[in-house]
## 1
Amino acid sequence: MTDLTELGVAQIRDGVAGGEFTAVEVAEAFNANVAAAQDALNAFIVTTPDAAIDAAKATDAKRAKGEALGKMGGVPIGMKDLFATRGVQTTAASHILEGFRPEYESTVSQKLWDAGAGMLGKLNLDQFAMGSSNETSYFGNVISPWRRNDGGNAALAPGGSSGGSSAAVSARLCPAATGTDTGGSIRQPAAFTGITGIKPTYGRCSRWGIVAFASSLDQAGPMARDTRDCAIMLEAMAGFDPKDSTSLDMPVPQWEAGLSADLKGKKVGIPREYSMDGMDAEIAALWDQGVAWLKDAGAEVVEISLPHTKYALPAYYIIAPAEASSNLARYDGVRYGLRDLPDGANLQDMYAATRAAGFGAEVKRRILIGTYVLSAGFYDAYYTQAQKVRTLISQDFAKAFEECDVILAPTTPTASFALGEKSDDPLSMYLNDVFSVPASLAGLPAMSVPAGINREGLPLGLQVIGKAFDEQGVLNAGLAIEQRAGFTAKPAKWW
Amino acid sequence: MADSTYRIQGATGDWEVVIGLEVHAQVTSNSKLFSGSATAFGAEPNSQVSLVDAAMPGMLPVLNRECIRQAVRTGMAIEAQINKWSRFDRKNYFYADLPQGYQISQLYHPLVGEGSIEIALDDKNPEDTKTIGIERIHVEQDAGKLMHDQHPTMSYVDLNRSGVALMEIVSRPDMRSPAEAGAYVSKLRTILRYVGSCDGNMDQGSMRCDVNVSVRRPGEEFGTRTETKNVNSVRFVMQAIEHEANRQVDVLESGGKIVQETRLFDPTSGTTRSMRSKEDAHDYRYFPDPDLLPLELDDAFLEECRASLPELPDAKRHRYENELGLSPYNAGVLTAEVETARWFERLLAETAKAAGKQPAEVAKQAANWLISELFGALNKLGTSLEESPVTPEKGGDLLALIAKGTISGSAAKQVLEIMLETGEDAGVIVEREGLKQESDTGAIEAEVDKVLAANADKVEQYKAGKEALFGFFVGQTMKAMKGKGNPQVVNEILKAKLA
């Protein structure tokens, strides 16, 4: 019998619908993998095997009655622990929300359950989605299932902030997982672990019920084995939500049905400014390879300019912390979550003690940065200036897209690094986002596709950035790369 | 209006007071500014709180269109500029009654820009007005409420009010006396109640004032101001200004300096005290709320707002004077409260209908009766116009009986008293009590003839020049008719007979 955990979303959906196996069999197989890997990989904060089985039973029952199964019928998934799940602890990997069980379900997770998906558990992440290595989680870092081929056993970063998601998908603990992307938190971990992930256009997926990091940037998206699986899952996640004022009031396209790797008549832009001094030679070579693949798929390749690229990262590290400093003010010990009330404490003491104990160092760093850049006397120099840069970056993309349909770039400047390697150096950690942040600031759809293995045996990703609302163009270019890259590598099981 | 002569007489000379007001008016709406929770006053603590109001993780604000509509209509009522593009900002600070850790407000791009209202200080002379500039109206969320009396060491939080929509109406520093400030608050309240955008219930906190006061030598530059927070009645606003201005004069005259600070008003003592100085002031770190898109208003929306505006108090007062012929004072009294004006207009319509006359023909009678008869009677009963047992319909019937000469003015007073007690119709009472007056000339003439015949001597004296006896003849006739003779007809006949 096939190992059900080797199957992706489309295969499971079709297999369950066609009666090749039951949804319960699938859920049981993944539940077993989750349990077996938990100690080694720490991908989940909470596992919910019963929820996965219950959803699978419901799907099997529907099939028995001859009812239509949903887009995700019978597919068990991992849920990043940034999405509120009714009755199931939702922490954002923080101590301050430890034990918090919402009485509500996020719009995106509800849509997935409505589409027939089941929940295997809540996935670990960087605390409040702030980090690029999963080392800021209060519940311990996730260990990447990948290891270097040097014979050493150095624990590697699965990327962040959706590091639980990336590790779980690449280790076959789930066929797909939700991620959220603020400055690269879907694409960078996908690239680090050899999986596919897409951040749709800002507003495609409702933010309602997702613990907020930076509201103007946060966007949910799928992480899965391949492009088709991402297209299927994104269809299930996306859609207008009147409860989110920034939600796009547009119909959800049929991305899966629209998949085509034929890029004839399409132009692919190569941004000059993304070729940076000191860029990893293997990444540069892979980028060239990507250009060749897309040409092979029929696309015309043009050089484009995104002149304000070098200001994107500084602007991002002003805007995102500014919004975060305000978004995280609600964690104050008054209504829910952690409360630290020392003897004889007044309100201010309670705030100080609660937030000191409840937030990790990286979260505190960003709250401080954000508070600083919004302060009287600094606001114009930092926040206003950063917003201007953001506008210029959007204009850069708008101009570039007059000359091309999609943009090809590396996802990350390097492959995965060892845990601890960058955690003492926030700046070098922030540099990980250098290629992913511009699309976030412009609200554009962007995906990472696994495209190669470096000399250390670690996966590398290529990034496709598209026009606003043109997820289809992004997915199609991703599919063309995927078909030519023939990426089949997976981490050797050591856990 | 002449420039204010209000001065504080200090030991070193006269001081002028400069006042600006920020009024927080709760928007009348069924649900909150960014959530679907109810807004009823006096509900059980925390019974009107949604996940958004409690700032649960991942919750997002969604703007309530009705609150914006009400604020726009208010702006139109003060002839202010309506900004078709505005935006919400976050005002960040920590307090236990502020679940989000920020208040959603509008600092940089408010919904309503410059406008003004006219105030008058003299009831008898409502045309003698002064224009008070309004700088802006912005829309924002209210905070919750802390309860300090529930537990010996803890404070409790009630979030019912958290997220309720407020309009902050910011005046220019155009007022120069406590009386002007009082007139401004009253007039603003009247306008809000006409528009229906705020119920104006100051005792329930639906309208609260932050009072900015400074003093200066007449004609000189503005002095340093203080801001006294949350003053919740017209009288307290005036008291707070008076106290604060005198305090500032004392400080300045004893060689001190005014510190820019926030102060609190103590209603029991009528004094203000320092709350925090500028140095301790919060840095609110305002920035545009990324959860909300900029607010853009289209022409159709603005058109609907304008079309739904009622006749406003000044326009109504002018109409009462010019078209109905009411005195400025009466017109002022009847238009000061929207309920009074509505009641009066129904009364007028009912009276005209019942009497078969044009409204303008019965307007003075209706205005006088409402102001001097019904108000007085309701006052004695300790009740209000809204709860009056005499409805405009019943009042109109009564006034029509007077207008048609069916009953006399004094009989009408009697009828009103019974109506207030029993709620019966005027006609029923008049029938039962036999209060109908006799207007039939023949019948009255017969009585007059009898009276004149019985008092031939007095008729002689009258004709000889003792004209004061006229009243005697009237009295005798009325007595003979048991008070039911129409006095006007009696007078006319007597005059004719004695000529």
## 2
Amino acid sequence: MTIPAPDQTADTLAPVRAGLLREAHADAEALLTRTEREAATLLDQARAEAQAILVRARRQGEADGANAARDLLVRARREARSRTLAARREAYEELRREAAQRVRGLRGTDGYASLRERLEHRARILLGPDAEVSEHADGGVVARTPGKRADLSLTALADHALDRTGAEVRSLWEP
Amino acid sequence: MSPADEIEYTKVRGLRGPLAIVEGVSGIGWDEYVRITLASGERRHGVVLDADRDLAVVQVLEGTAGMDPEGIRAAFSGSPLRVPVGTDWLGRVCNGRGEPLDGGPPVLGSHTAEVGGAPINPVRREPPSEPVLTGVGAVDVLTTLVRGQKLPVFSVAGLPHLELAAQIAAQATAAGEAFSVVFAGMGLTHADASFVRDALEERSAAGELVLLLNTADDPVIERILTPRIALTVAENLAFNEGRHVLVVMTDMTTYAEALREVSAARGEIPARRAYPGYLYSDLASLYERCGRIKGRPGSVTVLPVLTMPAGDITHPVPDLTGYITEGQIVLSPETHARGAYPPLDALSSLSRLMRKGAGPGRTRDDHLHVAAQLLAALAHARQVRDLADLVGQAALSPTDRRYLDFEEAFLRDFADQRSDEPRELDTSLERGWQALLTLPRSQLSMLPAQLLDAHGAKEFDAPDVREAP
């Protein structure tokens, strides 16, 4: 058997080498193309995701902002409403104080004696002739029997009268 | 001032818990309202629970803490509680007995009405008609609330029924006609009461809302008065002022428990689950105060909310409520678990009077068709879901798989809504259509052909057509 010369071996293997190189190049090319495509897809996906996140964040931010604005508005409205109501209450209480004061002033007038007499008469109708009737510190009378009491003081009468006025009181804050 | 009111009784035999036993009284009746003055001049109020010979048992609404029996004066009003009525109530926030919580003056009115009221004379009743639109899509489309109707919400503890009640109270309208809401909260926690105030602030500021808040720590007898005051105010706003009024009452189970407590204090013989035997007639005396009256403008619509203890629909409160009311809106833990709000169980919910308030000339021509088709498709979807649990989704026919898609679309796109989002009926119906169009045209047999054409309903791929039943 004859051994071929080394240059002869190299010549024989040349096409194989060239073939292998070509394939390797083609593979590398294909890989590169695929990788580029994949990279581009990934990039697109990432961009789309980022866009979606941005849109979501914007929407969330808008919703949060709207909520905060609504909360502020609710608080402001409540504050305004409670101030109006507090002012009305003040006016109403002032009316009651004024009425009580005016009615107490009746004590010093000429008609008080007959008024007191009528109140005493009313007290005896309510609690019977044995009722113990005494003068109230604010004017008017208070009648008592064991277990019962009738308050016909001037302030109590003014209170009851105001309770009955009802919607008329509204004229204090309505034109 | 009646003569009875002028006499104050000063002999108090004792104080027990919230009860005061007053001696030496005469001519006193049950449920009479009592004004109590303490030695310090402080005013409290009470209701006669029991009267026997010269004794009267009075439940003190503010409690008896700090009261000295020696200095107490009790004046009996001669009648059950009366409240002033009129438009002054609008925009006000009061406690369960009608006293202001909003820092304003007492609510004033040109005349008063007894809170016990009286149900509407049956021969003077006008049948309910025309809708109250709640702005909650699933409710408006599937269980339309009709003016003059009583439609309860059945819920279970832990579900967002209070949110739904508040949302309906905040959004409901009556097609541009004068509309008001009376919201009666009973046995609410302070957190819930504060939530309700916030949710209804806008409507309150607009002068369209009366808010009565009885909190869990308020006396039980006050809880019994709360819905009665709400209805009395509503009746006046409706039948004298010509408004359409929606009365939201929550939670009626807490109300019934208060009734049970008072009944036990009165020594009455307990009936089912210790509720008094008259629970049915008592609930009816509230629910039947809704309606419309011949020859009068306005209407009173009642939306009671009740929680079913342990989800038991046979519990006396939902059971008896169901006998009296005209349908129910049922909330379900399963729907809630799937993340949909409001968690409506559409197949168990029903508005018996829906046909009187929805459809041509009232809402939209296709409303009743769409509602019927949605429910029919949902019922089939539920069967398919059960089947899928047994055989797996892969074994389902393509059409059946579309039913699962429909159910998903129904929950996600149609039923689900934000709790602060008012949804127009048109939008809700269109969303219903979108959910229905996930099904092949051949499955939408309850919808007229011209409506299907108008909405572009189509068959899907060929296998669907072949396999469609």
## 3
Amino acid sequence: MASIVFAILFYLATLLLVVGLLYRISTYARTPAPLKIPTTPAPTTTGGVVLRMTREVVFFESLFKANLWIWGFGWLFHASLALVILRHLRYFTEPVWEWVAFIQPFGMYAGITMLLGLCGLWARRLLVERIRYISTPSDHLMLVLLIGIAASGLMMKFAAHTDVIAVKSYFLGLMHFDVGVLPADLLLVVHLSLVVSLLVVFPNSKLLHAPGVFFSPTRNQKDDPREKRHLSAWAAKLESEK
Amino acid sequence: MADITAPAYRVIPIIPALKPGAMEGKGPFVAGDKLNEALGFPGQLVEDWHDRAIAKMGQLLSKYRSLKVFMDACVHCGACSDKCHYFIGTQDPKNMPVARQDLLRSVYRRYFTLPGKLFPKLVGARDLTREVLDEWYNYFNQCSECRRCSVFCPYGIDTAEVTMAAREILDSVGYGQKYSNEIIGKVHKIGNNLGLPGPALSDTLEGLEEDVKDATGIDVRFPMDVKGAEVLLITPSADFFAEPHIDSLIGYAKVFHATGTSWTLSSMSSEAGNFGMFIGNYDQLRTIALRIRQAALELGVKRIVVGECGHAWRVAYSFWNTLTGVGEGADPNDHFAQMLQKQLDHRYKQPAHICEFTWDMIQDNRLTFDKSANDKHIITFHDSCNVARGSRMGDLPGGQFEIPRNIIRAVANNFVEMAPSTTREQTFCCGGGGGLLTDDLLELRVKGALPRMEVLQQAVDEHGVNFMATICAICKAQFTKIMPIYGFDRKMVGGVHQLVSNAIQLGPK
């Protein structure tokens, strides 16, 4: 029973995630940026913009300038999450790619640092007056959701082992539209339910900061307004009307 | 207004505790019928303001990627929460950039996102009520659009863009701000923000020629409407009569004189400032900027140079090419821009900042200075927000910081920096930018100046600073007004070209 329910949930959630994200990204891409508004000093070349975006996305450069606590916890969480996700590729590949096998131990510890980062962020949200003031219930819930995912995952690793070989064959099956049997294990059910929720929430929430940052005009525009005329379609129409 | 006092300096610049509601109801005067209608806005708050405001928001979301992305991307991380000078000075939590954005974002979520429609409480979504509208009016007129928050946001969210959108929505339902709309009306009617008509302007310029002659014995000209001049100077109208602005205007004229540059002002287009940006209205922004294009075409000038004005330089540097074609690199089929771009001399940057012009001349050894003329000053430099975070000078990123400082060092012996966390791109707003330089917002202006005043005091104590140079008409006006309230001499503030003017040698080399 659980096997079929989760199969349906995962297909549905993945579909919602992909369609939702594609829709959002296409909206961002289609919406014009009529004026040059990079936050200066800004790079004057495309290569420079790529570097700026890379520093922003990989190292959270602006956040580093803003607040070392938020940067520390935030970066720890995101970097750990990236490792954890990459580690999970082993459940979807057969044979497991070599580099995925190599990062397994790092990915495991990353689960712990991810939890640390999340708890740090939540502590700030609860304890710092300014951040408590701007927090909505969903901000707290989002952290609870991620903490739940990390904690249930870690418990399966360190407290009550689940039959990962069976889990893997279930997911490999799903990838070929072949619904197998999922081990009946409470921690696993919790972990997977929370992951399904995250996939559904993602394209409908502030988690859109992930694709959003790439479309932020203050970061991705070149500083060259004097050298090249920048004109959006709707602004150009104003000239033809005259 | 006389009872407004300066807030106490923080012992160490700690993050202030929250005082909810501290600045509630302290917004500026509302614009009346005539001011609004002159700009094509409804005279007063329309009956169906709710529907029209939501429709306008939808329209802006589809026209501006910045707004669309910024509404979605914020994660409430708090990086910006202690970065706004108005929050530091007033302690009102709604003056934290993220909270200010959330005034609009909460309504966006309610009307434009699924979770906001389904679970408004959960995601902090709100119906657009009259209270919310009033809150918009109040707090979006307590933002100077200085972009300091955008430096620190991990997604580059710029509250200025959100404030502009909110003001545009408010104007579209007849709930505009008096000061900005009045000034825009004056530009349309008379040609400058101060409402100085052409004859008054030429009187002023003649008077200036006499003053400079008396002081130096040299005939420095202040030409107006000269066809075929090489340079058209577009400068904030405050330069024509306000103190200390006028001393910088004299400085520009002396630089043109000493380098033998033929230049002119325009009586029709006698304003660099563009409050269309402050109210976030593209049509106003564009219409005001088109006066400069018209003047340039009529006078047949080869170069356009912009005087010391912060937001004007952002508009000129970043937007003029888009709005009017003043610049380079238009498509060959773009006849609108080509008409002007063919006329301009592209050996030079178009438009150029007066500091770029002067610095080029200094590097070419076309100017000589007696630096000792500025020895009475120990000088520091206040970076103006729009120059620092919304523009550039010269060829390299950061030229907007180096070039004015280079000029100061070339014309004076004593220059020191203020605390590095408050200069360059991290500079604090003077507290009066973004359309807030009005006496009905004096309390806000005084409190918003706190972070700058704290570090200025530090520079005074440590280095004996007695002159703060800046290249913005609004900074100059704001500081001369509020610095006495903090116990400083108003004459401590002046322009970079005021220092140039003091030291420049006009006679034969």
## 4
Amino acid sequence: MKKIETTIENLKKDIAAFYKPELQHFMVMNAVDLGEKIEVQWFFSNYAHPCETICFYALVSPETEIPSIRDIVESAWVAEAELVDLMNIKVENTQKGFVLEPDFESGPLRKKK
Amino acid sequence: MNLASYRKKSPWILHYNAGGCNGCDIEILACLSPKYDIERFGMINTGNPKQSDILLVTGPVTKRSRERLVEIYAQMPEPKVVIACGACASTGGVFRGMYNCEGGIDQYIPVDVYVCGCGTRPEQIIDGVVQALGILETKTKELEESVRLKKETVKEGKQINRRNIADQVKPAMI
Amino acid sequence: MGRQYEIPIGAQHISLLEPLHFKFTTENEKIVKTDANVYYVHRGIEQACCSKFKFRQVSFVVGRVCGLCSISHTTAYSQVAEKLLKIEIPLRAKYLRMLVIELDRIHSHLLCLSHVAENSGFEALFMKTMQYREFSMELLEAVCGNRIQYDFSIVGGVARDLKPQVAQSIMERLKKFVPQLDELMDIYKNNWTLSLKNKGAGAITKEDAMRLNVVGPFARAAGLAVDVRNETEDLLPWKEVGFEMVTETTGDVYARNIVRLRELYVSIRIIENIINGLPESALITETKAFPDGEATVRLEAPRGELFYYAKGNKTQVLERLKIKAPTFSNVAAMTEAFTGNEYGSAPAIIASYDPCLSCTAR
């Protein structure tokens, strides 16, 4: 796994420069609660052999709105909608309620204070 | 011969997955297939709750499928039998205590037969269904009235078990 | 421009094995837009794996993510835990894992094919395919001890050895299965009534498959050669045992059926090669280390690429476990491929996606 650090501001530029639909494959978005910050990760692989997993990551605070990459990677909306519910973070143009019921406390994967 | 003894000659099955892992569902499908062949008891898998007599439920009840489960149960005509297929439908199994799960379907609807195992074997499902046929014969309208459906909301830690969920759909039941 | 109607299908429906909700917007029976709700079976396994269970127990919990491909989940988790523990497993354990994964692929693909036949209105073929599928369940029971939920892979190796008489019976049953598979291939390829429902339905182009990051037989039917078995060999030596890529070009329900059937031939060859060349070694690598660091694993489940991310913190309990199931990648394409099809062919198209919602929702 190759990890590439990026920031919220540069994220869309970095991924647009990296992602080519005929070469790269977007796998999933993930987030890890590190306590004060949240590490948001975007996983890519490629169709070539031998394949390498590439991970873009950015450290954000829980209140930051994360830009949506669905205009670059069209199928990313599923991963974004899931993360909004499970990690209780904000993603541009994404509503809550895709995974969890509206009456349920969101962010079950966040660390309990 | 009374009506009840004819009922068990052609019980139709309704299958609903309330959040299980598909393991028990494919075993129910295997029961319908030629090797186990529960059609010899006159059973057909039907998709319509209004035509079915036996409700086979798999999986612990997830929070999003709970209303659907009670709704399907309420739509089935009486007399009806409910079979909980598998460990997680009976007690919650390995999923018990996870944040989006309840411990078994008997928190929402009355269960007549519990089938154990993770996953259940087709032989066990057939055994449970045959036991359910005996129960179907003895069922009357009074027996159908469920005590558990009227339970109050129970708060366990951070989870609220919405056992009073049936109150909202009760007009449809009668 | 006709009037538009919204037709829901699910959460409970005769053509669905699991709760899944599609809302079709139709215009003169043609589907113009689809909304999907796939999270009916969200249980919260990821959170429980990182809080309630110790890392050696988690391999049994993640098997319960999905009953159809439980061996893929347990194997992928075991591999990611072995990466965190920095251990190498014995060669015989690797081969036995591949053996069970391929046996599991046979039963999963045949289940999907029978389901497509049933949803296309061909009940007799459903019964025939299910009858032929039973041999794989019996073999899995002989190898692992259970028909579903095998719990075969554990952290460090495998839980059971393959007995010589079981290996012999696998070879005999596979020999009997090959003519049955030829018969199924003939029906799925040449039956005229089935082709009316399947040819041209739910088609997706190669460009769309790339754009929407489709995986598994869904992508291979459209001509996109994506298969983890072809891409990585660091964990399981797939090329050594005779893996071969199978692709079709049309991308419709028919092509998906043919891809699955042709993959069965590949699986049979892989199983025969594994049994003929099974190396002798220990079954499990013991270690007393605790998981530390980050690791990712990709594995080809019957439905496509399975992805695990794990992070350890030198304790018994993992810091984070992320499961990406194959159907999760296909959700975006699943809603798009309906567009332009008749509403009547929707059940067959849904079955041909082979959706596994309990994997997706976890």
